[in-house]
C-alpha cells in the first residue's frame, strides 16, 4: 500500500501495556525523519462496535510532543482493539501508523489473591491455596497457569 506522507515520519516502537486491571499506557517514538514541529495524535477503537476515541491524557516529551497516552477504565473485549497514530506538521505530510492488538496479550496480571499456606508435621506437608488475579475480562479461571517458587525447605 502507498501511504501519503514523508517516509520516516510515522511513529516508531509503538507499545501498549494494561496494568492494575483497567489502566493502559501506550508509548511511541517520533519518526526519525519527522520534522521538528510534528505533533502526533492517537485514536483507538476497543471493538468493531465501539466509537473511535482520541487519547484524553497524552504523555509529552520535553518539547511538548505527544509520545504516549494514558487510559483509564479499559475493558478487555473479545476482539482486537484498533490503534491509529497520525501526525501533523507545517512542513510536510506525516505518515500514519496503525495496529490491531489483542488486549489480553498485553495485560500484566495482578498477583493471585488471598494466598494462604498451612503446614502440618505429618507427611502431607504444606497446603497452599489462592484465588485467581483480578482482571476485567476473565471468563474462565481455568485459563490461568501458576508457578510456585519455594525458596527454602
TrEMBL record:
Compartments where located: Membrane
Residue span, Type I cytokine receptor cytokine-binding domain: 13-105
Keyword Transmembrane among record annotations: yes
Membrane topology, as annotated: Single-pass type I membrane protein
Cellular component terms (Gene Ontology): external side of plasma membrane
Pfam families: IL6Ra-bind (PF09240)
Single GO term (MF): cytokine receptor activity
Keywords (A to Z) from UniProt: Glycoprotein, Membrane, Receptor, Signal, Transmembrane, Transmembrane helix
Key word Glycosyltransferase present: no
Superkingdom of origin: Eukaryota
Name of protein: CSF2R factor
Amino acid at each position: 500500500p502507498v501511504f501519503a506522507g514523508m517516509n520516516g515520519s510515522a511513529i516508531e516502537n509503538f507499545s501498549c501495556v494494561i496494568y492494575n486491571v483497567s489502566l493502559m499506557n501506550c508509548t511511541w517514538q517520533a519518526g526519525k525523519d519527522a520534522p521538528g514541529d510534528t505533533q502526533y495524535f492517537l485514536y483507538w477503537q476497543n471493538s468493531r462496535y465501539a466509537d473511535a476515541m482520541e487519547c484524553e491524557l497524552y504523555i509529552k516529551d520535553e518539547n511538548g510532543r505527544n509520545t504516549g497516552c494514558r487510559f483509564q477504565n479499559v475493558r478487555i473485549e473479545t476482539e482486537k482493539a484498533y490503534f491509529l497514530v497520525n501526525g501533523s506538521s507545517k512542513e510536510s505530510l506525516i505518515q500514519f501508523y496503525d495496529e490491531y492488538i489483542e488486549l489480553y496479550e498485553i495485560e500484566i496480571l495482578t498477583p493471585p489473591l488471598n494466598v494462604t499456606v498451612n503446614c502440618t508435621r505429618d507427611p502431607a506437608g504444606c497446603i497452599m491455596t489462592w484465588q485467581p488475579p483480578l482482571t476485567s475480562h476473565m471468563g474462565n479461571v481455568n485459563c490461568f497457569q501458576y508457578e510456585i517458587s519455594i525458596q527454602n525447605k
